[in-house]
Amino acid sequence: MNNTSLTHFNLNDWLHENPYRNGTLAQELQCYGLPYGGIGFASHVLTYYTIIMLSYQRSPWMPWKRNHHKWIDITLSIFGLVAAGTLTVLTILRCRNRWQFVVMATWKLVLSVTFGILSIHAATMARPKDKYQYSGLGHLESTANAIENKEYTKVLWWMLLYVPGVVAGLSGLLSLVFKEIGHNAHVKIITEVFGIVVAFPAGLVLIIGIVSMCQQCCGSRKEEVHNSSIEDLGKRTVGIGIMVFLVAGSATSVLAALYSDWILGAIAGNLVGLPSGDVAPLYWGYILAKRLPFFSF
Q: Membrane-spanning regions, if any (predicted)?
């Protein structure tokens, strides 16, 4: 259907068209209409950056200013959520013959839904200009304290919705890696690099967590612990354990998404991630939809 004009486009035919059903992974990957490679990597980085900015009520494209156009931001977030979700579902349907691509696209769908809900929630918390006493990056803490509702970062709790998507997506991603790592040099190199990148912070967080828990029972806090109840000590230990788990889990989720971008690029033989053929409209449409909350202000 590459040479078919848009006037003769038939969605049903397009969804069922699969010329590489029994081809190589690189050929079958042509059904995948979501960003990957360097472009996908950049898209994910922008998504995470936008999440951080919105959680601090900052405009992603003007971080020195705070968001105060509530309804415009809500509209952008809703359109972005609906469009990105729809385009992802189309990719899932078209790639239904390869389960790894389906679960990885589902991973992106969960991220889109999480990102959309978080953006909408953040937009509902935007306040008019007269509610802010300060402006500018130099007064970030002062500005935050000037807001009546100081719990704006609670929107980050929506990221818990992302966890099931990560688990599902990783199952498909690792399956593809095991199939390719033996004969695809790029997949092997990318896996080794990300393995080191993930192992170092994970090990560091684990060590810090163990040291913190040990301090609850010995060392400089021995006297304090002696005077504390066993119940209080248990609560502190559990709290530290949960914190370590959340930090390690968050880092793994972020790095896993970035890892998946490069792995798909390596499999496709297209590390840049430029789309071709009939998936190009979905590809660029998805990127545009995901960027709409970026223009909150």
A: 34-54, 74-93, 99-123, 155-177, 189-212, 238-259, 265-289
pLDDT at 71 over 60: yes
Question: At CA 56, angle to CA 51 and CA 62, rounded to 5?
Answer: 80
Structure tokens at 277: 């053929």
Which residue, 279, 267, 294, 285, is CA-closest to 37? Answer: 267
The domain tally of the chain equals 1
1: in domain: no
In angstroms, what CA-CA distances link 244 with 156, 201, 205, 217, 267? 17, 11, 6, 18, 34
For the chain, give the percent of residues with pLDDT over 90: 55
**Which tokens hold the place of 64?**
């020195």
Whether residue 135 lies inside any domain: the answer is yes
Please provide the size of the chain in residues: 297
Nearest alpha-carbon partner for 32 in 112, 91, 75, 82: 91
Please give the Cα distance from 105 to 286 (Å, whole number): 12
Domain region containing 258: 6-295
pLDDT (0 to 100) of residue 9: 60
Tell me the one-letter amino acid at 266.
Answer: A
Is the per-residue pLDDT at 161 higher than 70?
yes
| Token output for 47 | 């998504």
SS3 17: coil
- Contact between 100 and 172 under an 8 Å Cβ cutoff? The reply is yes
Tell me which residue of 72, 190, 85, 175 sits closest to 126, measured CA to CA. Answer: 72
**The pLDDT value given to residue 4:** 43
**Among candidate residues 154, 146, 145, 144, the one with its CA nearest the CA of residue 124:** 154
**191-209: b (≥16 Cβ within 10 Å) or e:** beebeeebeeebeebeeeb
175: in domain: yes
The answer to whether 293 and 53 have CB atoms below 8 angstroms apart is no
